[in-house]
Design a protein that fits this description.
The complex is a heterodimer of chains A (79) and B (143). With 79 residues, chain A is an all-alpha fold. In chain A, 54% of the residues lie in helices and 0% in strands. Chain A is globular and about 25 Å long. In chain B, a hairpin with a 2-residue loop joins strand 5 and strand 6. The chains are: A mainly alpha (79), B alpha+beta (143). Chains A and B meet through helix 3 of A and strand 4, strand 5 and strand 6 of B.
Chain lengths: 79, 143
């Protein structure tokens, strides 16, 4: 999967799952703030990425994933 | 780290519930992410509804105890302390068949989807008499 395709798919599933406008999912936007994630919904995001892209986000890596751009890079380099 | 497809006989060491609210009779670990459990619905079950069937809340409690036992087992196998598991959230809960009556046995398959810190997201499917009766996603928080 090309990175552009990954981003398009990621935006679609995240906006659908977390019921946010796709326009708020900008590469440099803060993930937690844009999707109003708390500790419980953060687990949903990790599960979604695992199910949709087959990439397991390790707990110690989570603090390094602040923006959507960080998330795209993390997933793309591990697919 | 674990013995594949092994039946865990000391469930009481993994969850704090005791009769009559212990809702897991048998627990079998398939691998790190999957386990199966059973519960025979007895006439003394505290989660029976007015019609004598196990309530949805009872099925969810059975799933929660199964998931908590599985997470506790993995901790124990890793040489860590077994923690208590609490229901953090339930999503996509669908009742797909008639609730089980007294005398029936629940069969549940739990899969760990993700794990962040002290919170695990699991999916669960429960059947009785070969009929799917409920599926859901549940977050189990460790305390």
């Amino acid at each position: 999967m090309e990175k552009e395709e990954l981003i398009k798919k990621m935006v679609a599933i995240l906006s659908d799952e977390f019921e946010v406008d796709a326009e708020v999912i900008q590469p440099e936007a803060n993930i937690k703030e844009a999707m109003h994630l708390d500790s419980l919904s953060l687990v949903d995001m990790v599960g979604l990425v695992n199910e949709e892209f087959g990439v397991e986000i390790k707990t110690p890596d989570l603090p390094t994933i602040k923006t959507f751009s960080d998330l795209y890079d993390y997933v793309f380099t591990r697919m | 780290m674990y013995s594949p497809a092994c039946k865990v006989t000391d469930i009481a060491s993994l969850i704090p519930q005791r009769s009559p609210i212990m809702m897991v009779d048998d627990y079998v670990i398939e691998d790190e992410l999957n386990c199966r459990s059973e519960l025979a619905v007895g006439a003394d079950n505290m989660f029976l509804d007015e019609s004598g069937c196990l309530s949805v809340e009872g099925v969810l409690e059975h799933i929660a105890q199964t998931a908590a036992a599985h997470i506790g087992y993995l901790h124990r196998q890793a040489g860590e302390t077994v923690t208590l598991g609490y229901i953090g959230d339930i999503k996509r809960c669908a009742v797909t068949g008639p609730l089980p009556a007294v005398g029936m046995t629940l069969h549940t398959h739990v899969t760990v989807i993700s794990h962040v810190g002290d919170i695990s997201l699991v999916s669960a499917e429960t059947s009785a008499e070969n009929n799917p009766i409920l599926n859901c996603r549940m977050k189990v928080a460790e305390g």
